[in-house]
Design brief:
Elements: H1 12-29, H2 31-34, H3 38-67, H4 70-102, H5 121-128, H6 132-139, H7 144-150, H8 153-168, H9 171-196, H10 199-214, H11 223-247, H12 252-258, H13 260-269, H14 276-285, H15 290-303, H16 306-322, H17 329-345, H18 352-363, H19 373-376, H20 379-404, H21 410-418
Length: 425
């Protein structure tokens, strides 16, 4: 039996939208008061983040144990990684080409020696410790507990896959543990649903702080960079992800509309991590298998950073244009190659996109690393766009890989995307 549709003014979408609007107004007219609202946004993000580790663990364990076939786990994971690398290459290229077409840095005429590199020294120090080997070693936690304490999603992913694999070998004893973990999973998702009711307050606090701290006027000549970046994000979602969805007979516009609640929360908080539990639940409702969702979404948060890749290459082009530095074709190919690696190495680090940019500039020294100072003030605005793009990209990845694996229920997908939350009659 179909549920009665909620009035629009009682939906999370409307509540978050009101929170965002009020936050913008407060930040614009009373900036000193607005910056004091930061704890509201930070508190909401912390509430969600405290649940992510256990939810990822429970979802992956039940998904892997439910498969009862480790060859299938490897096959799904392999297809996901192939998809991630192909789409990541496209996003890096689009950011690079888009930067040349839009020319956001033209006319700045900045001299490197005029910039204060101390403003980004913390990011430089983090980036200097990034390399592929240390990244792989970082996946292995010091202990099972430390993975959850540190909130390292890749470490939790490793533990969960091993745990689920072990369960498949224990017969009836394993089934009993499986049922307990599945029950815990339902409890944790219920807690997340309770926290999500506070999302409008979190979005209000985060957006009020951003506008109050920086203000629309602080963008000044950098508006071209911010505006151009959002144009590239929209282009990437509609054209690249839209084409990929079309191959699987899925409408990108319908999908984006389906996850509009989550996108608004990301808009307010500038973090896609805060909606990881919700997007995992929604992908299951759309007809993706639980095992596919459990593997693809958490992995995508580290390996499928479409928006971050767009940001990386466009930012490098912007800085080089602002300093009147000509990048050769070889330089640009190196930037793309380095970006493919650093985007993985920076995952799980606070300010990952900025660290990723720093590490790229350190490896490609033709563009002075102190040039990052130019975008430091607008990084928060760029971060919102890249987080929203990352979210859409990971959702699409889950749909595509599930369809590729022939584990996407198209009947369920069509019904859910037309009638969200209503059961099939």
């Amino acid at each position: 039996m179909n549920k009665t549709k909620k009035p629009f003014y009682k939906t999370i979408y409307f509540e978050v939208l009101i929170g965002v609007v009020l936050g913008i107004l407060l930040g614009h007219f009373w900036p000193s008061l607005a910056v004091k609202m930061a704890p509201l946004g930070e508190g909401f993000i912390k509430l969600i983040k405290m649940m992510i580790g256990v939810i990822v663990f429970c979802t992956i364990v039940t998904g892997v144990a439910g498969m009862r076939d480790m060859k299938k786990v490897g096959r799904v994971g392999g297809k996901a990684l192939i998809y991630f690398e192909v789409i990541s290459t496209f996003s890096l290229l689009i950011g690079l080409i888009g930067g040349h077409i839009l020319n956001p840095g033209k006319g700045f005429n900045v001299r490197p020696e005029s910039l204060d590199a101390s403003l980004v020294q913390g990011y430089i120090e983090k980036a200097q410790h990034l390399d592929f080997v240390s990244f792989l070693m970082h996946i292995i936690p010091d202990s099972v507990v430390s993975a959850f304490v540190q909130g390292n999603i890749l470490s939790i992913l490793l533990i969960a896959v091993l745990f689920g694999w072990a369960l498949t070998t224990l017969g009836e004893a394993g089934r009993q543990v499986f049922n307990v973990i599945d029950g815990f999973s339902q409890v944790f998702f219920k807690i997340v649903n309770m926290i999500i009711r506070l999302s409008s307050i979190g979005a209000f606090g985060a957006i009020a702080f951003t506008v109050g701290q920086y203000g629309a006027g602080s963008l000044g000549p950098l508006m071209k960079l911010v505006g151009g970046f959002y144009v590239l994000c929209i282009f990437f979602v509609i054209v690249v992800l839209g084409f990929v969805c079309h191959l699987c007979h899925i409408s990108i516009f319908k999908f984006v509309n389906y996850i509009k609640d989550e996108l608004l929360i990301v808009l307010g908080t500038s973090s896609s991590e805060v909606v990881m539990p919700q997007i995992m639940a929604k992908m299951e409702k759309l007809g993706c298998s639980k095992s596919a969702v459990g593997l693809i979404i958490p992995t995508g948060y580290s390996f499928n950073l479409d928006g971050t890749n767009l940001y990386l290459t466009m930012a490098v082009v912007f800085i080089s244009q602002a300093m009147n530095i000509d990048l050769s074709l070889t330089d640009q190919l190196i930037i793309i190659g380095v970006g493919m690696l650093t985007s993985k190495g920076a995952s799980g680090i606070a300010g990952a996109a900025f660290v990723m940019l720093t590490s790229t500039l350190l490896i490609v020294p033709i563009v002075p690393v102190q040039g990052m100072v130019l975008i430091l003030g607008v990084h928060r605005f760029l971060g919102t766009g890249l987080a929203m793009t990352n979210l859409v990209g990971n959702g699409v990845a889950c749909l595509v890989v599930s369809a590729w694996e022939k584990e996407l229920d198209f009947k369920k997908l069509d019904h859910e995307i037309r009638n969200p939350g209503q059961e099939i009659a």
